[in-house]
């Protein structure tokens, strides 16, 4: 054995011996244990891999568990009743358990993936060995394999050392690996933020050079990635890091353009408040929706366009409707907006001006609207970001708290003024 190989072997043994001490196996889900045990029993190799091992070594609770195996998807499918094959670009098996879903992927061969002219991977279903599978992964910290039965960490890429140094290092040449899959740049920023890791300098430089390649990523994949970026409990920090690396502009160019303007302080505050709010909700176990995220990010560009159309002579209502339509169509070139989120997002926007009408039946119609709560939250965010929405937020907060009789009293049409005028005097602009 060559001395470098000997060194590697020794290091591997060192990392194996310390795995027991470092990995708290009780943090591995029952489902993951079961999948590994059944694959072993059927004579296949099976390891916990990727973020799960990384997080266990960092004493964090893994978000999900991925298993790597030499069994082919059809073989995995046959072993588990509660499973199905998903994906075309990358076929994997989802195995469902009461405590969550486990992803089982067959070892992939490195460098065998189909790429397009720019070098971007379009399909990756050529199976390979565990060594090859380690090297096709994105970062060294994400390429460790853990066998809970043997209590052994297999480190073929020097990942342990990088985890200890809190360094996110691309496996191979960052320029090549980011060209192969530009989403890896977003993953680098997201993981470095979440784990408090430093991105290794060559990879940093590559991100500044290659951010524009995100334009080639299918919009549906960018939508999925957007959820990971902003619904992972670190949205505010991740957003700021994405802006620092000039990546945000390639996902939300309309938003980035408005944020660049000197007069965008209020919008910038709205985005920051909303992301902080999203993090707080996630960290206290409350639900979040991409509809709200979109409503926030696209609010600035939609309003700028709406105002511009008004100046060009359209009525506030027509300008608003045209701006909503145009903004959504423009954003769809970058990230998809599934209808189930696109419609609620429009509702959140369209309800905003109705908060100004604090009298008559319209108050109750708004209050009973299925999107009232989300629209009210959005209104309060606008208020806290310094938008001039008078004291509407307070009025509606009180309105929700009081009993029915007081609600009726609050919404009574004022008699002193000319009520006919009051009723007609809907806001002249869309707020
Ligand atoms: P998280 O904590 O957010 O789940 P993760 O690293 O586990 O982070 P996943 O999306 O769950 O991310 O992916 C699981 C593993 O698959 C990664 O750890 C990595 O080894 C590999 N992987 C995921 N995406 C890519 C990619 N785009 N290129 C190469 N390898 C990838
Ligand atoms: Mg994961």
Looking at the structure, the CATH topology of the largest domain is: cca-adding enzyme, domain 2
Return the structural class. Answer: alpha+beta
List low-confidence stretches: 418-426
CATH superfamily assignment of the largest domain? cca-adding enzyme, domain 2
> What integer value in Å does the Rg equal?
26 Å
Based on CA inertia axes, which overall geometry fits? elongated
Largest sheet: 7 strands, mixed
The total tally of domains equals 3
Bound molecules: adenosine-5'-triphosphate, magnesium ion
**Strand percent estimate:** 5-15%
As a percent range, the share of helical residues equals 40-55%
Q: What is the CATH architecture assignment of the largest domain?
A: Orthogonal Bundle
End-to-end C-alpha gap? 74 Å
How many helices? 22
